[in-house]
Amino acid sequence: MPSVLALLTDPDAFFRTRVPDPSLKGPLAVIVLIAAANAAAALVQSRFMSQVFESGGMGGGFATALQGIIFVFVIFGPFVIWLVYAGVFQGISALFDGDGEFSTTLAFTGWGFVPSVLGSVASIAINYYRFNVRGVDVPDEMSMEAYRQFSQSLQTGPLVALSATLALVFTLWSGFLWTFALKHARDLTLRRAALTIAFPTAIGLLATLRTLLVALEVL
Length: 219
Description:
By secondary structure, the protein is mainly α. The protein has ten helices and no strands.
């Protein structure tokens, strides 16, 4: 059975050899790594978020509770996204006469998130530099005008553009892996597999592209 390295070098062979035994252990580990990286990124931003809540006049207890909710979301979010993508892929592939168990689609979809692990690690580094090294000025009082300017500053700039550009690359990479994943998970031709993953992947690409354009102040 090919090593995980084969996923990056020969995804067609990687998924083909896993059809008889589509274990969820490896994909689950991938999603856990993403969740852990997201949690680390949230911790990196925690001091900054506390300053934002304080500037907005939120009490310490409310701010702590809100940060806790955010923390839970970033941890469990990747698992929900994994299930949603697998479900959408399963449904769309049925339109192309796909044949295969949902458990196989779920497992193979999970492997397609491997680029997101790299993206999450890159996000930690960028956010650490942005919020803990360079720093972001938080207004002492969050008036409507101050909030507007502050919000704009968070959405623009070279670091935001860098994050968005990397996200585009990693999303395209995931789409490439998912094409071969669905080819073997649902017994599709390569063309039909590509069509299966096209719409969900395009939505992610368009959302990230908008973030990039805003960061570059094009929109």
